[in-house]
Each structure stands twice: as structure tokens, then as C-alpha cells.
Write a structure and sequence with these properties.
six-stranded antiparallel beta sheet; alpha+beta; binds zinc ion; 439 residues; single chain
Length: 439
Amino acid sequence: MAATELQHTLAKSAGLTGTALHTGEKVTLRLLPAPIDHGIKFKRKDLADEPTIDANIGNLKTVERATTIGEGAVRVHTVEHVLSALSAMGVDNAIVEMDANEPPIGDGSAAPYVEVIKKAGTLAQEASRRFFDVRDPIHIESKNGSLVVLLPDPKFRISCTQAGPNNRFTQFYSAEITPSVFEREIAPARTFVYYEDVQPLMEKNLIKGGSLENAIVVRGEAVLSKEPLRFADEFARHKVLDIIGDLALVGTRVRGHIIAVRPGHGVNAELARAIVKEHAKIAALSVPRSFPPGEGGLDIAQVMEILPHRFPFLMVDRILGFEGETKCTGLKTVTINEPYFEGHFPGHPVMPGVLQVEAMAQVASILLMKLAKSASRIGYFMSADEVKFRKPVFPGDTLFIHAELIKARSNRLAKAHCSCVVNDAVVSEGDLMFTFLDK
Ligand SMILES: [Zn+2]
């Protein structure tokens, strides 16, 4: 396990002024410090109430030519270059304040943002960084020939091949992404466009701020730009820059190796989505636990700190108490608002038996987690034996859920006898087996 890395924000505010690519208007962008776990948020200073937009994949709106995020009716376009710089330069928490709907395009690279970040300086915060460590490969492919694969790797590494139409300008670039590599080798790589792609946009007047000062235009075999190419493989490097920016929408840092073939914002965003999904799955299996001492009960907030389940899959409202080391009782109020009553069964609502088993498993896992001495292990619900459903459970019933540990074989397996009780009568019961695995 690597040493704990701390979250960082900016030491002070800093900004820059430039031209917005799409509107051609002047825009001022400022980067501001933000507290622990804040993440990156964009703030529209030009709108009433100055709304903020969280830079997360759930807010992704469009990926055509640039990455656009939004909340409600508010949008921020072309967020990938500033996000790339913040992420790669090690800024976890910041506010990106702008007086327009997109950042200044600068020279089409991320170098101007790196300058602003260095001007502001970064500051360590007293909380550890969150990481997504790749366990199983993730693979995304698009119809137009883009491909990204994410493989396990102890470092954050990107290898990218880029090829234009008819394989013109085929390039390859690979690097471990660190702040110094980013600043020197990736941030200066500029946006490039194919003449055949931008000509219709220019005709529609959609890129008013576009010029050879902020993009390289590729026309046939010719490269048109204000200055010569900064790197022989500048296009592949810019693709890497874009990948880092789009993956910043994951919200946690990624430790893994991305292999990208002709990537674009579309597949990058899909990869970000897949990572978030996978991360949620893993996080659900390894929640931190903190038990108040003694045999007292747990309220709903404490239950939710221990169990990863949420409505409608959280089947325990509170824990009434523990008895010694082996017994635990939970409570669940069954209301007509439970979503399953809509389909199980209309006109004659009864609580599904499998959900009672789930309720037993949740109470039993709370008991097992309280018992487990080591926080590095988690219990998985393995099987259920001798399950019997004795009486129907109706809306309005209060379910008392009992779990009693009857066997803890080796320290890998545990068995709990569980029952659900309504009005002093057992409505369902069963023996549930759990296994412990190291996280
Ligand atoms: Zn770009």
C-alpha cells in the first residue's frame, strides 16, 4: 500500500483573462481555494445568484468537440483543459470562477492554466486523497473506431495512439502522469482540428474565437499554425491532455494504465462513467465502520455509516441493541410507501420474502462487523439455509429483526440464525452464512 497522499487545494486565488472559443467574447477565469472533499466546482459569476456546477460525470451534458457539463439550465463548455491542469498538477479542491460560459481558450493548450496554478501555489490539506485502484480491466469501444482500455497499474499512466483521417499523422505517446511530466511534456500540447471538420463550423459562425493562435489546423498534409509544432507527437500528447481532463470528472484519482486508440471526449466520458460505477461497487463492499462502544442501539445515521445500502435497499431503520457478543436486534417499519408494494402485489400488498432475508442479512452483518476485530476484512453474505416464510408482512407492520451468531468456524466463516418478528409472531426465519475476505 502506498503512503497516504493528502488532498491539495490552491494556496491563494489566481486568474487569467482571454477569449472564449465559441462566442469570441472576453472571459476572466479565476481559480480559488476550496475546503477538503469539495472537489472541483465551476462558478458562473455572470449569472444571477452565481450558480455552481459540480465537475462530476453525472453533470456531463455533451461531448461534441469539447466537454460540456451543466446543472439545471446552466452550462459550462470546454471544461477539459482547465480540469486536466488542475488534476495533473495535484489540485483536488478548487472553485473555477468564470464570467462566461466557457474558459478562455488561451493557445489551445493547458499551459496557461498550469501557469495560473503555479502562480496560486498549492497547499496540502488534512485529509487523504481518494483513489480508484483498478482491479479488473475496463474496456470501452465506440463505433467510429475509438478504444480505451484501463488496466491495473500502481501508477497513473496513459499510452495513446492518435491517427487522423487516412491514418495521416499517426502518433504514439506514453507517460506516467506526474505534475512535472504534465507541465513539461503534456500541458503545452495544443488543440488540433481537421480543416474539413471546422470549415462547416466557421461557415455557421460557431467558433467565433477560433484562430491559428489557439489551434493547429490540419489541412491535407499541411499543418497550419501560428508557431511550428511544439512536439513531433503534439497531437497524441494533446489527446492525453484531454483524457486527463475528462477523467477528472470521476472525482477520485485513478491508479491504473489507460491505453487509448484514437480517443475522443465520447469514449473518455464513457470510461469516466464506467470507473464511477465500478468504484461505487467496490466502495459498497468496504465501508468504514465506527461503532459506539457498549451494547446500545444505533440510530439510522449510525446504521448508514456502517451499511452501504440506501433507500430502497436499506432494510434496517435502527438497531435496538446488542446482547453480549452474539445477538443483535434491528427494527424496520414497513410502510405503504415502500416501492415494492407497487408491484407486489397491487390490491394485496405484501412484503416480498427475499427482502425479509435481506433485512436479516443486513442486521447480521452489523453484528459481524461489530465483532470483527480487524477493519481490513469484510463479510460477504454467502448462502441462506432453512429459510421459512411463516406469515405475510403487510404495510403498517413493524418488523423486529433478530440475528444470533451460532457458529464462527475458523475465522473465515460465520453462521447466524435470524428471524423476523411481527406482533410477537415469527413471520420468517433462516440460517445465513457469511464469509470473511481481506479487503
Ligand atoms: Zn483538447
